[in-house]
Design goal:
- There is one protein chain.
- The chain has one domain: Winged helix-like DNA-binding domain superfamily/Winged helix DNA-binding domain (Arc Repressor Mutant, subunit A, Orthogonal Bundle), CATH 1.10.10.10.
- It is built from 6 helices and 5 strands; from the N terminus they run ββαααβααββα.
- The strands form 2 sheets. A 3-stranded antiparallel β-sheet has the order 3-5-4.
- A hairpin with a 6-residue loop joins strand 1 and strand 2.
- Helix 4 packs across helix 5.
- The longest helix has 15 residues.
- The radius of gyration is 21 Å and the shape is elongated.
- It starts with a strand and ends with a helix.
Amino acid sequence: MLEKHHDKEEISCSQLVIHEDAVQRVREKMPPEDALYDLAELFKVFGDSTRIKIIWALFESEMCVCDIACLLNMTQSAISHQLRVLKSSRLVRNRKAGKVVYYSLNDEHIQEIFRMGMKHMMED
């Protein structure tokens, strides 16, 4: 039986387990705790609008820090900091060409995540 508390949207069950079969089925399919933690950490990286802009720019083209800084009207230092976060999360990679370091998306999964996110945001 569900109970509604005060005027809040909080709903709780008055019984501990109503559908044991559903609970067991989901429990068996739950990823390990450390994998869920890593997924949460990945989504935290997406929680910064500057990093989102950088990733979006890298959809279109491989770019160096100077180019990204110019595009986003930010300092190279600020962009470098965000690129380090993105690189440590394995979202971007870099390559050197002489003295210039170019950044690109690590793989197509990142674009897929973004496309799905944008599709979700555009739905009514």
